[in-house]
Amino acid sequence: MKKITAIYPGSFDPPTNGHLDLIERGSKIFEELVVAILRNSEKSPLFSVSERREMLLALTANLKNVRVDTFDGLMVEYAKSMDATCVLRGIRAVSDYEYELQMALLNRKLEPTLETVFMMPADKYSYVSSRLVREVAQAGGPVKGLVPEVVEQKLRAKLDPAYRLEQAPESGRPKRRKKA
Ligand code: PNS
User: Fold this and answer.
1) Is the model's pLDDT at 12 over the cut of 80?
2) pLDDT of 58-104, one tens digit each?
3) Which of 22, 53, 105, 128 has the most neighbouring CB atoms within 10 Å?
4) What is the residue with the minimal CA distance to atom 19 of ligand 1?
């Protein structure tokens, strides 16, 4: 039987437990899964592409048939360049469906041989999105359980000045004044 390579494209800013759940599911049905981070997004991202790549590499290190890559331009062109025949996308709720359907049909118009496969993440992640995670983290709220631990740490390091100071090497810390 033919080996099926799928790509899982997205912004992953940051990767969530929902993304990871989908990557694990995808890795079980495709021979090869390429997690592809969009580089030329117009949005101003919280994490740089290389930070997102590092996080995804750490999160998928135990999944031998999963690779992490970046792309820009048309997703269908990138898929072709990777010899991928499937695109994996997650659908959490009905509200995702309209946008995903539009994107899948447009991609099919651009490249009829590329199939979009939708999978549902575990229902406990059905309300988790990168946008809401960013919002909660930027407002100083807890994101435990919404993102993997490595992402939680990166969010704290980026957004919590007290945490940054705690992690800083001795020399970088403000000196304590001696008691008189
Ligand atoms: O995680 P996101 O932001 O929902 O992912 C959207 C993504 C990256 C899959 C989509 O924006 C995309 O494929 N962009 C690349 C440009 C492209 O091919 N656009 C036409 C497809 S609608």
Assistant:
1) yes
2) 999 999 999 999 999 999 999 999 999 999 999 999 999 999 999 99
3) 22
4) 74
Q: Contact, 35 vs 60, CB < 8 A?
A: yes
Based on C-alpha coordinates, what's the Rg of the chain? 19
pTM of the model: 0.90
Rounded Cα distance between 16 and 56, Å, is 10
Tell the residue nearest (CA) to atom 12 of ligand 1.
75
In this prediction, residue 2 carries a pLDDT of: 81
**CA distances for 129 relative to 10, 107, 143, angstroms:** 12, 23, 11
What is the 143 CA–ligand 1 centroid distance (Å)? 25
47-58: per-residue pLDDT in tens? Answer: 999 999 999 999
121, 14 Cβ separation under 8 angstroms: no
| pLDDT attached to residue 124 | 96
Those residues with Cβ within 8 angstroms of residue 81's Cβ, 6 or more apart along the chain or in another chain: none
